[in-house]
UniProtKB/TrEMBL annotation:
SUPFAM superfamilies: Periplasmic binding protein-like II. PANTHER family: PERIPLASMIC BINDING COMPONENT OF ABC TRANSPORTER (PTHR30290), PERIPLASMIC OLIGOPEPTIDE-BINDING PROTEIN-RELATED (PTHR30290:SF10). It comes from the Bacteria. This is ABC transporter substrate-binding protein. The lineage of its organism: Bacteria, Pseudomonadati, Pseudomonadota, Betaproteobacteria, Burkholderiales. Belongs to the bacterial solute-binding protein 5 family.
Length: 598
């Protein structure tokens, strides 16, 4: 197991070169260290904002690296806010030109690449960081955010060089960044609030060739501490952080209380975040109930009965001061099928019939009742309820109907059976579906539901278990036939979900490798339109095409049950951001009393 411990060498350098304001150094008694205890449900893959796309890595990245923009913590509906800029950008030229003014005095955390000097972040660092998404050596899954949109970016794609200047991405001076687009993009500012747009320093990237993900050096609210891969990550409060809390709370008294507690204060509020990798549901639940974690988001469906009864938190947990929150996650669960796979892929009628039969075999009601324990709703399309562009009246034309699925398979040549009674492919060739799955208890439960559903229409399926991070890597290379996955919104617009089926994104976020001209044309047109009836009509047509060709089986949208410990302060879950660690505070004395009394 690889262990990276940058703090031992870096800490001495860090505090040697820091100069704090006089008010920060006094003779007040030392306060107890505030340590936030958290877990991630899967292992991180690496901490390079241009490369990592799994949920665990993104959760860490947004705390280590700074994009230009962020989200107002309290505003609902969600609202963008300045992060490393003095204000939201000046937008000109019909929505094609954006001018940002970088806030002076933001510094990268120390690293030997800086040769002992404090390194201020500048507009040129954002130019370099965004160019990295074009670097063919990185194969960034986020290149689609800017590819073909920045004015003159063909120069980066024909012969890539970090020193190539393009009119669409320019540092006008040390603190002024101008971005120009070829065409307006209504979601462009959302891209600049994503971890992939986080700023990095060229010296650091070049000091560790091919190893940027092992040496995360950013300007975010935290810096990396001890790091034992796939086991434990410690984030330390960045002493260089100059972030200050501002928000626009609504009328909710709880939001107003958070605003009153945080307004004008420096972020983050805790000294350290200790993060464990906890892949098994039971371990997470028991750890939370024993006070090892400060909050629990999305109580595992199989564990609902441990903490809830009749839809409420159990009385003994209420007595302990715990609080329950219900949260509609902007997330879609779906099972995708590889459109380039020789067994299940293709656009011919026989392959379309096979995928549609698979879709019709899926028992959504059983999934929601037994696996999700009622904490989900049926997905009618890729888009969850709270995303801008959601079609509330759309209903999937592909029903749960095993009898009709069997008839469809008979009609299109899947009539012969092998000695075990399973269908053969047209022409009598053997037919075995291979579905990847996670090597967890919940993964095995999903396997059994899928086995039951597929067997009901005469289809043989075998399961290949692996870690999700490995499955994602193989999926990008087109080496996975089928996999049940989920997508959490990067930004609050339906576009973020429809791009998962856009042909040019194959090998990136489009794991199904769906590439249908009729869909691509509608998607491209939808990107040029503001929210409204014309865009909604395109989304309706795209839904129909998805259900006609069935590269996906849309499964569910999750309703999350979240619980926090009584000593945790300022907790509010955000619909888009992965974590809220920078805003959280702790009553250390109350935690001590609670954990010692249990």
């Amino acid at each position: 197991m690889t262990t990276l411990r940058p703090t031992a060498a870096a800490a001495a350098l860090l505090f040697a070169c820091l100069s704090f304001p006089a008010a920060a150094v006094d003779s007040a008694p030392a306060q107890p260290e505030k340590v936030l205890h958290m877990f991630l449900s899967t292992s991180e893959t690496g901490l390079d904002p241009a490369v990592a796309s799994d949920l665990s890595s993104l959760s860490l990245l947004e705390n280590l690296f700074d994009p230009l923009l962020t989200y107002d913590y309290l505003a609902r509906p969600v609202k963008l806010a300045p992060n490393t800029v003095t204000e939201l950008p000046r937008i000109e030229d019909g929505g094609k030109s954006y001018t940002f003014h970088i806030r002076p005095g933001i510094y990268f955390t120390p690293d030997p690449a800086f040769k002992g000097k404090k390194r201020e972040m500048t507009a040129a660092d954002y130019v370099y960081s965004i160019k990295r998404l074009y670097d063919p050596a990185l194969k960034s899954p986020f290149s689609y955010l800017f590819d073909g949109k920045l004015l003159g970016d063909d120069a980066l794609k024909t012969k890539f060089s970090y020193d190539t200047s393009i009119p669409g991405l320019q540092a006008l001076d040390r603190y002024t960044l101008r971005i120009r687009l070829s065409e307006p993009d209504n979601n462009f500012l959302y891209y600049l609030a994503m971890p992939a747009s986080g700023v990095v320093a060229r010296e650091v990237i070049e000091a560790y060739p091919g190893q940027a993900g092992n040496h995360p050096v950013g300007t975010g609210p935290f810096m990396i501490g001890d790091w034992k891969r796939s086991d434990r990550i410690v984030l330390l409060a960045n002493p260089y952080s100059s972030a200050v809390f501002h928000a626009e709370p609504g009328n909710d008294p709880a939001d107003k209380a958070i605003d009153a507690a945080l307004e004008g204060k420096r972020l983050p509020r805790v000294d350290k975040v200790e993060v464990k990798i906890a892949e098994e549901f039971q371990g997470r639940m028991l750890g939370f109930l024993n006070g090892e974690y400060d909050y629990l988001e999305q109580v595992p469906e199989s564990m609902i009965d441990m903490v809830m009864k009749d839809g409420k938190l159990k009385p003994d947990l209420v007595k302990r001061g715990m609080q329950l929150y219900r949260f509609p996650v902007m997330q879609t669960y779906y099972m995708w099928m590889n459109m380039e796979d020789p067994v299940i892929g293709g656009y011919g009628k026989d392959k379309v019939a096979l995928r549609r039969a698979i879709s019709m075999s899926y028992n959504n009601a059983e999934d929601i009742a037994l696996l999700k324990r009622g904490m989900a709703v049926k997905a009618q399309s890729p888009v969850p309820q709270d995303a801008l562009g959601y079609l509330p009246n759309y209903r999937s034309p592909v029903p749960y109907d095993p009898a009709l699925a069997n008839t469809l398979l008979d009609k299109f040549g899947y009539t012969e059976r092998d000695p075990d009674g399973f269908r053969r492919a047209p022409g009598g060739k053997p037919l075995t579906l291979v579905m990847h799955s996670e090597a967890t208890i919940s993964g095995r439960l999903r396997d059994e539901l899928w086995r039951k559903c597929l067997n009901s229409v005469g289809l043989r399926v075998v399961f290949k278990s692996d870690k999700k991070t490995e499955i994602i890597k193989a999926s990008r290379l087109g080496k996975v036939m089928m996999f049940e996955s989920n997508w959490v919104a990067d930004f609050p617009d339906a576009d973020n979900f429809y791009q998962l089926l856009y042909g040019p994104n194959a090998g990136r976020a489009n794991y199904s490798r769906f590439n249908l001209p009729a869909y691509n044309e509608r998607y491209e047109k939808s990107r040029t339109l503001p929210p409204g009836p014309e865009r909604q009509k395109l989304y309706f047509d795209m839904n129909q095409l998805i259900h006609a060709y069935n590269p996906w089986v849309p499964l569910t949208h999750v309703l999350s049950a979240d619980i926090r410990q009584p000593w945790l302060e300022n907790y509010k879950r955000h619909p888009v951001e992965f974590t809220n660690w920078r805003y959280l505070d702790l009553d250390v004395a109350q935690r001590g009393r609670a954990t010692h009394s249990e």
